[in-house]
Design a protein that fits this description.
The chain is α/β, with parallel strands linked by helices. It has helices spanning about 10-20, 25-35, 40-55, 75-80, 85-100, 105-120, 135, 175-195, 195-200, 230-235, 255-265, 295-305, 330, 440-450, 465, 475, 505-515, 540-555, 560-565; strands at about 160-165, 165-170, 170, 215-220, 240-245, 285-290, 310-315, 320-325, 340-350, 355-360, 375, 395, 430, 455-460, 495-500, 520-525, 535-540, 565-570. It is built from 19 helices and 18 strands.
Length: about 575
């Protein structure tokens, strides 16, 4: 029996479970269990890629076994990483020159030779020399060098996970509550893994900036935000920092950015001209910081991280903290070596293909630090935690100076736009995708008719409908606007029943509907990604299937119709 049952995990959950398994036999047992069970295409591909990786690692790495004429440039790039002897690489370079003679392949091999040669010079490690921007680019002006907050910190002290809790019109957004709950989970696990007892047991950690448990710090900026402090503590915050000013009732880029950066370096010591010392903390900057991936949160996160001279992973839907082994000489400072960076926040986000996740890391260079490690979180990515009224925490008021010059524009009047269509409260959502392409108007009409069969239902669409070049008749055009978009950059819904018609199942869309009670997918492609996370999968054209479903709902025979038409999806039974 394999150590894990792949059937107990979604495909998104299976990846992290496999990352610590390096035994090929064990991975093959897991693959067999998946194939004998649900046999999800995505899961099989994921396990097979893991097997292939370690099967390659088990090879002896002898360049004599490599034939460049049978390898792509990418294959050569992967192969040279496992070769540690310069002589083997030189032999491979000769073979490439004699066979294909591809310049790109020769450059890859030569670079590996150069990296290994540098690390062996004089029998000592060769460190990368630090250069200032002025030294690297003497012909350019560097106005950022004079900015108050853009100063790299070397060997700074960092602690805690900060959460920017966004409010609008006096109310705290649900995504702020989600982030507090997730931050509490992360820091509880962090303190278990890296706390005093764990550090002592391992003989001490590479990062000694924190000698005890680290905290979740909520940050509230605005007018009349103090009323949210108790809720922030109940949801997981250990400390709540408030910044109150009636001029901050509306989000403004300049003051919000400057205030957050002042608070982040409050009590730190990265250089002259910083905020006054703080009696509630004594580190230079936060270790981690989370922002909501809302319109305002996206803007603020990018501005703050740039001002603090760090990096940002935007639109994240998964977070975890663990050590990372890195061999990039830009990060290690020593070509040909691998370094372990501890306490790294791994930030997962859908990549541009729409079907896979990328994991973003914010890792220090040898001569400068990149902190806080920061990311913005897609609303709906995490559950809102249950408040704990017994939790206790500290409330800190920031009383720094707010410069009138930060408010360059005065808002004299404004209108509140119609909030548009809210799909989040419906018991049933019928979502239409690119499968309507053969007859866009007819496809939307069928979706609307099916939604009308239910007492509490509405119609949503994918981004492909919103941004596509489909031509719709006036009677359905209102249902195809961005306000009905479901997914990463749209609404996040969790109805009792979600019907996805003509939708392939890109990660960006999955983020918006994955928590639905029952998911029914209709698609002509039996290998569509959406099958992996559907309870029922109907292989067929929506123009043929939807009329039958409409008749079934109207007659009350929905279960029988689904059982007759649907194959079991990757997450459910037939």
């Amino acid at each position: 029996m394999p150590t894990i049952d792949p059937g107990e995990y979604t495909i998104a959950e299976l990846g992290p479970e496999l990352k610590d398994i390096a035994d090929v036999d064990e991975l093959e047992a897991i693959l067999e269990a998946e194939q004998d069970g649900e046999n999800r295409t995505g899961a099989v591909t994921l396990i097979e890629s893991r097997i292939e990786k370690f099967s390659e690692d088990d090879e002896d790495g002898d360049a004599g076994d490599l034939d460049p004429s049978e390898m792509s440039v990418a294959d050569i790039g992967n192969a040279v990483r496992d070769l540690e002897e310069v002589e083997d690489l030189e032999a491979l370079l000769e073979a490439e020159e004699a066979a294909e003679g591809r310049d790109s392949a020769k450059r890859l091999i030569q670079k590996r030779i150069d990296d290994l040669s540098e690390s062996e010079d004089d029998g000592e490690d060769t460190e990368v020399e630090a250069e200032t921007p002025e030294e690297r680019h003497p012909d350019l002006d560097h106005p950022t060098a004079d900015k108050r907050h853009v100063r790299a910190i070397d060997d700074g002290s960092y602690e805690d996970m900060w959460v920017y809790c966004e409010t609008q019109q006096g109310d705290m957004l649900d995504v702020s509550r989600e982030m507090l709950g997730k931050a509490r989970q992360l820091m509880d696990q962090y303190n278990e893994d890296y706390g005093v007892s764990a550090s002592e047991a391992s003989g001490g950690s590479e990062d000694e900036s924190s000698g005890g448990d680290e905290k979740v710090v909520a940050v509230l900026v605005g007018d009349d935000v103090e009323k949210h402090t108790e809720e922030c503590i109940e949801l997981g915050a250990d400390v709540v920092v408030t910044v109150e000013d009636d001029r901050l009732a509306r989000f403004r880029h300049k003051p919000y950015t400057r205030i957050f950066c002042d608070v982040a370096r409050w009590g730190g010591d990265p250089g002259e001209g910083n905020p006054d010392p703080a009696d509630w903390r004594d580190y230079d900057e936060p270790r981690y910081v989370l922002f909501p991936a809302t319109n305002n949160g996206r803007d603020l996160s990018a501005l703050v991280q740039a001002e603090l001279d760090s990096g940002l992973a935007s639109d994240c839907s998964g977070l975890y903290i663990e050590d990372a082994e890195i061999s990039n000489p830009v990060k290690t400072g020593e070509p040909g070596t691998t370094k372990t960076f501890d306490r790294i926040l791994h930030m997962k986000r859908p990549d541009f293909s729409g079907f896979e996740y990328s994991t973003i890391l914010c890792i220090d260079n040898p001569h400068r630090d990149f902190h806080p490690q920061g990311g913005s979180v897609i609303p709906g990515s995490f559950e809102v935690p249950d408040p704990d009224p017994d939790r206790e925490g500290e409330v800190v008021e920031w009383d720094g100076d707010i410069d009138d010059g930060w408010f360059h524009v005065e808002v004299t009047d404004h209108d509140v736009l119609d909030e548009g269509v809210d799909l989040t409260g419906n018991e049933v959502v019928v979502a239409m995708g690119r499968g309507i392409g053969d007859n866009p108007t007819k496809g939307m009409e069928l979706g609307i008719e099916l939604a009308d069969c239910f007492e509490d239902a509405d119609v949503g669409v994918t981004r492909g409908i919103v941004t596509g070049s489909y031509q719709f008749d006036a009677n359905v055009e209102q249902y195809t606007h961005e306000e009905r978009q479901i997914g990463e950059t749209g609404q996040v819904v969790a109805p009792d029943l979600y019907i996805a018609a003509g939708i392939s199942g890109a990660v960006q869309h999955k983020v918006g509907m994955d928590d639905s009670g029952v998911i029914v997918a209709i698609n002509t492609d039996p290998d569509a990604r959406i099958r992996d996370f559907s309870d029922y999968f109907i292989e067929g054209d929506l123009f043929d299937v939807l009329p039958g479903l409409i008749d079934a709902v109207e007659s009350g025979d929905v279960s029988e119709a689904l059982a007759a038409a649907a194959a079991p999806g990757g997450a459910g039974d037939d």
